């Protein structure tokens, strides 16, 4: 079953065309990693899926909600946004709220859960991401990896059909990257539909079902994760993937 379908999606910033009539279909339970050089349109595509960025033209469907990006009502826009939840690279937690309060806020406000129900949900999600003991700590007392795991729990709390990750490890110290990737790997095993913009090639190869390589606002190549990363067909993909395999040389 199709969970996400994007047709002829176009987005410009001034004269810079960032997405050029993108077509993409993602099935229910599929994990798709989007890779590509900086400025290729990866994050813009992700942000267009939940209308954080307003596309210029095209059509977006998530679950059973569809809209024409040029002609739609506020009700349709709100319905589309409620199908997904976003995990940002910079966590975006409320600094004046505890880890648990960050998670329970949306279920209480948008879904009408009472505080006890929301607390039980929040604690179970914190346990799922390995942070039950940190429930009453504020973000400033948590490491970057812990804050990102709280952000993932917060995204799960609204029971989205799709999870969107925008470079979830790019702001982390190297020793904190794995703890976040392990949580995402566990979610993949639960067959949650996920779209992950990432620069972690090994993670994409081992966790994603499919890899989409973007460059210059286009989808250049896509296919099974290991095939695209280990045996890319397109020259642009080959050049991009090669730079992650080449040893880094330092000259002093």
Automatic annotation (TrEMBL):
Span of domain ABC transporter: 4-241
Topology class, membrane: Peripheral membrane protein
Keyword vocabulary terms for this entry: Amino-acid transport, ATP-binding, Cell membrane, Membrane, Nucleotide-binding, Transport
Example GO molecular function: ATP hydrolysis activity
CC annotations in GO: plasma membrane
One Pfam entry name: ABC_tran
Cellular compartments annotated: Cell inner membrane
Main location: membrane
Keyword Kinase recorded: no
Cited InterPro entries: AAA+_ATPase (IPR003593), ABC_ATPase_HisP-typ (IPR030679), ABC_transporter-like_ATP-bd (IPR003439), ABC_transporter-like_CS (IPR017871), MetN_ABC_transporter-like (IPR050086), P-loop_NTPase (IPR027417)
UniProt similarity note: Belongs to the ABC transporter superfamily.
The protein's name in its UniProt record: Amino acid ABC transporter ATP-binding protein (PAAT family)
Organism of derivation: Alitibacter langaaensis DSM 22999
